[in-house]
Amino acid sequence: MLEIAIVEDEEKEALRLGNFLDRYAEETGIELHHSWSNSAAAFLESYQCQYDLVFMDIRMPGIDGMAAAEKLREMDSAVVLIFITSLAQYAVRGYSVDALDYILKPVGYGAFSLKMQRAVERCARKREHRLLLNTNSGAVQVRESELCYVEIFDHHIRYHTLQANYDAYGTLKSVEQRLPAQAFFRCNNQCIVNLRYVTKMDGCTVVVDGREFSISRMRKKAFLAQLHSYTELSWEEEP
Asked: What is the pLDDT of residues 140-171, one digit of tens each?
């Protein structure tokens, strides 16, 4: 089931998009549910990483769609985003918030269905690699591939991602159990690293995303074996 949000202040356009979604679901057999918010501020206030896809109007009163998208990305780096706009030039900044595409008003079903197909494919890929973090400032959803490393200080967890750092409370063991074992490795009692971002190893020290971490002597052999295995798998998966 795909959860889809329509953030659009014009009811007529929101209804049109909702009808297109229903038609697309009927034609393709894809299960989806969509909801409408006529305010970007209200949408962000109630956001809890519950959507797979967001259609965001750019020109709205109060917080406009671009500003809302920037705030959305602070909470959720994985949700698929498509802008709705009356003028193409308003969507050129979409790359800065990793927008998949934009739809020009008035929305036509032909163009919509093509872009929807791309969105569904992107959702399917992203759904398999999301991680929901219960941070001190609320729920945040990130891609596992963008999580560089995790540290702990007196039961205070810090997640370091490509976009930002997030703080939470818990144990490193509980974090380790949630991460895919083939891509992440616990170097010592203070950190877990993403093997994707290992750039150098010297003795019992490993460099991850520019940071140096020590590997306990008892874990070094296992680390080298897992890094070798991960590297081989990554090469096999390259398109």
From this structure: 888 888 899 999 998 899 999 988 899 999 89
Q: What is the pLDDT of residues 176-231, one digit of tens each?
A: 988 888 889 999 999 999 999 999 888 899 999 999 999 998 999 999 999 888 87
Can you tell me which residue has the tokens 């992203």?
A: 126
Q: Provide the 8-state DSSP code for 82.
A: E
Structure tokens at 123: 């959702």
Between strands 32-37 and 2-7, the pairing is parallel
Q: How many CA atoms lie within 13 A of 90 on its CB side?
A: 19
> What is the distance between the alpha carbons of residues 206 and 176, in angstroms, rounded to a whole number?
18
The pTM score is: 0.60
Q: Taking the CA atoms of 183, 186, 192 and 193 in sequence, report the sign of the dihedral they define.
A: negative
Give the Cα separation of 59 and 68 in Å (integer): 11
Residues shown for the chain:
239
Each residue of 24-39: pLDDT tens digit? 999 999 999 999 999 9
Residues sharing a CB contact under 8 Å with residue 95, sequence separation 6 or more, in sequence order? none
Q: How far apart are CA 77 and CA 49, in angstroms?
A: 10
Q: Residue 129: which of 116, 149, 146, 151 has the closest Cα?
A: 146
Contact call for residues 194 and 149 (beta carbons, < 8 A): yes
Structure tokens that stand for 53 in this block: 């896809």
Q: Please, what is the average pLDDT of the chain?
A: 88
